[in-house]
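Propose amino acids for all 137 sites.
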């Protein structure tokens, strides 16, 4: 049994349709694209000129920047995958429904970082309150 036959058997056992497979594959890609747009629209400031020292420091600091970019896109892709799992088996098998879900996955990837940051702030606040409460007890 080769790899393709194994994958086909797994798909048959799970009962996935072609639309479901396309959704699982392309939702993380579309969400990562939304995260990349978020990176360039919200995070990067285009109103300030790029300093000349940036080009010199790029060679020294490229590895942390690449790691940050991969992490940024990974958060969006994971959000897109979770989004796809939410819709697998529930949408109609029409291209219109598929494209609407992919568009929503793109928006989910765009907003994933804002959601992550707000959740982080809430967790820090709750943890700080818990520490203060335990100190008083």
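Proposal:
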């Amino acid at each position: 049994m080769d790899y393709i036959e194994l994958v086909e058997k797994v798909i048959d056992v799970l009962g996935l349709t072609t639309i479901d497979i396309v959704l699982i594959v392309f939702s993380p890609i579309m969400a990562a694209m939304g995260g990349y747009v978020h990176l360039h629209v919200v995070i990067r400031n285009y109103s300030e000129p790029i300093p000349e020292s940036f080009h010199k420091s790029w060679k020294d600091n490229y590895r942390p920047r690449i790691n940050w970019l991969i992490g940024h896109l990974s958060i969006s892709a994971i959000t897109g995958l979770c989004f796809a799992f939410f819709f697998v088996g529930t949408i109609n098998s029409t291209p219109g429904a598929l494209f609407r879900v992919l568009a929503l996955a793109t928006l989910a990837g765009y907003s994933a970082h804002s959601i992550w940051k707000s959740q982080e702030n809430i967790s820090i606040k709750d943890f700080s309150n818990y520490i203060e409460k335990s100190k008083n007890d």
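The CA atoms of residues 20 and 89 lie 6 Å apart. The chain has one domain: 3-136.
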